[in-house]
Amino acid sequence: MHLPLGVDWMWMGIPWVLVLVVIVVLAARGRQNPESPEEILKRRYASGQITRDEYERMLQEIRR
Question: In Å, how far are 6, 39, 43 from 60, measured between CA atoms?
Answer without folding.
Answer: 63, 14, 16
